[in-house]
Specification:
Strand content of chain A: 15-25%
Oligomer: homodimer
Number of helices of chain A: 12
Strand order of the largest sheet of chain A: 3-2-1-4-11-10-5-6-9-7-8
CATH topology of chain A: Isopropylmalate Dehydrogenase
Largest sheet of chain A: 11 strands, mixed
């Protein structure tokens, strides 16, 4: 696949009010991001009075929005009541004024609540042709000092095999765009490596993925298990949103527990505190390698626009990483890549196997 | 619930040949276990020539079995071909010669392959009344220095809400028997705390669990997320086997990666090696607190006999922990507890909500 990077400046719309901290975090992150990316421009969306600090930042303009979607707002409130929210106005920047024209922004980043962000994005942008449901993809660190992309992470429960195929195709496009691996390997998350294991949906998904691989449209490795995410067995791991969300939260929970135990052990008495001091450079390096902030920025895939979701509690460093990911995705035309790959894959599938079946399933 | 401990000696049948290492691990584990439990007796099942080392162990007798189920043997081989396997003969010790009599052994422990162990156990022992499917329960460490019991871990994919209720009841009996908490709190693994989230099956399971709690048959906390396993939010976490297996494997994978990174960091150069030396007591204590070997011994629940599964790669210390768990379960009459709780819960449920529905589902 030869898709040239987008020429000229890349414009990112930033929901400056979203997340736990709002402008206190988003402003410094945008400042650092713009300093590192001379070709980037930012549309900072939010209450002008809260964004006065942006006045001095080059290549950064403020787009006013009078309301804010809070972390606890139900989807309905974000969707129907707060029509001038910073989240909604930021996403609107992705809609071209005339069909096929370039929109005001090439990608959008928000640390607002996931449910609201997905619902508003889906409502305003719609899904791409051939995609039934958008999915959420994130990266997790792996043993090779690289990272593994995992999707879906909670946008979809009760997925069909066709949805899992679509996730695989969209995820492949994401890895190609953001990491430059044109044929990323895909693993299907299962509970055993043998094709015979797993639920009916998973078995059928395995068949669809194999068919797509046989047609040269996907680099399908086969089944993988939960531990393969961190082993880095494949570049991409595909699963339904329920399973993906549990895996992500379980990993976060274990990491939090281990961090807390390490801290307890090193602060237990004067000797352990001394040991911590001696081991400080080692512990710092360890912390850097497993720093989850470096992996911030989940992609909402399958929409007619590039939306990235930052963790709600992200600090400026973490939020900047989400901006970086959105920038890379836009620069490398993730949207065109997803579009092309989906069409290619669906057209090549035997009749009834993908497009038709997925229409039938969706009905 | 007042169930008195089983009087007299507790007899454990041990599949001495199972697992990656066989007697090299099981024999020393049995020796240590018997030394620590003066009321215990062990039936060591396997090839007599491989178990010659058991001759000197007190309260330990050898039951001959000429075959061994390997870690790669398909279920069919274990079930239909190797009829004199150490696994099968060990499980057979749980069947009373006359109905309602006490069997040769009160519990059985094997490190053999999970699929074979579950299939042979189910075939020989059958399920308890009111149980559609046996489940596998294990414990994971939590922040309170306690542990959280999780089930199912892979015996069942495609579970119904009724199965999840049965898992909750069986798991509660397990925690009561092995940990002495008579009313353990139960969490339903979901992707959000709000009852509205999750798949249809999960929502319906939430309703069944709430109904059982309202009737006083279960201490239902509500929905929990993946990270709650390690937070120790509830004593018990219930999920279908696919999700549970992914959560367990993901946690194992992350733990393995972090361990490997810590080792790399502390052996990077002469300074970090010096730091490791200084920090050794801290690292050892840390390692002990998160040592997965301490949590070895998964319970196969819902069968007419107590079967415990050790990790295939367990060392003698880990295998001994599985023996300990089997001993505690047998001593505290886990089988009677599961039986009583299941009957009590099912009888109290509104018609069509549990027993009938689960029969309909199974048909």
């Amino acid at each position: 696949m030869s898709i040239a990077p987008l020429p000229g400046p890349i414009r990112i719309a930033v929901d400056a009010m979203g997340g736990d901290h709002g402008p206190a975090i988003t402003l410094p992150a945008v400042r650092a991001f713009l300093a590192a990316h001379p070709q980037a421009e930012v549309l900072l969306v939010g209450k002008p009075e809260a964004l006065a600090g942006a006045a001095g930042i080059e290549r950064c303009s403020v787009v006013p929005a009078s309301e804010v979607v809070t972390m606890d707002d139900p989807v309905e409130v974000a969707l129907r009541r707060k029509k001038d929210s910073s989240m909604r106005v930021a996403i609107t920047q992705l809609k071209p004024a005339v069909p096929d024209a370039r929109a005001a922004a090439d990608a959008c980043v928000s640390a607002g609540n996931t449910g609201a962000l997905m619902a508003v994005s889906r409502y305003l942008l719609k899904t791409l042709d051939g995609i039934d449901r958008p999915a959420i993809a994130t990266v997790m660190p792996n043993e090779h000092d690289g990272h593994t992309t995992v999707l879906d992470l909670g946008a979809n429960v009760d997925c069909t095999a066709e949805h899992l195929l679509q996730f695989a195709v969209m995820g492949s496009a994401l890895v190609a765009a953001v990491e430059g691996k044109e044929e990323p390997s895909v693993g299907l998350l299962n509970i055993g490596e043998e094709a015979i294991k797993g639920s009916e949906t998973i078995k059928r998904a395995g068949e669809l993925l194999r068919a797509a691989a046989d047609g040269g449209h996907l680099n399908f490795h086969g089944n993988v298990e939960g531990n393969d995410i961190f082993k880095g067995t494949t570049d991409l791991v595909v699963c339904d949103g329920f399973v993906g969300n549990v895996a992500l939260k379980t990993a976060e929970g274990l990491a939090a527990m281990l961090t807390s135990i390490i801290r307890q052990e090193f602060t237990r008495n004067w000797y352990t505190k001394f040991a911590a001091l001696v081991a400080l450079p080692v512990l710092k390096h360890f912390k850097h390698r497993v720093d989850h902030r470096r992996y911030n920025g989940a992609a909402l895939l399958g929409l007619r626009g590039l939306v990235f979701k930052s963790h709600g509690s992200a600090d400026a460093f973490a939020f900047e990483q989400a901006l970086n990911r959105a920038y890379d995705a836009a620069r490398n035309r993730l949207l065109d890549r997803v579009h092309d790959r989906i069409l290619e894959t669906l057209q090549a599938m035997p009749a009834g196997d993908s497009a038709e079946a997925s229409v039938a399933q969706a009905a």
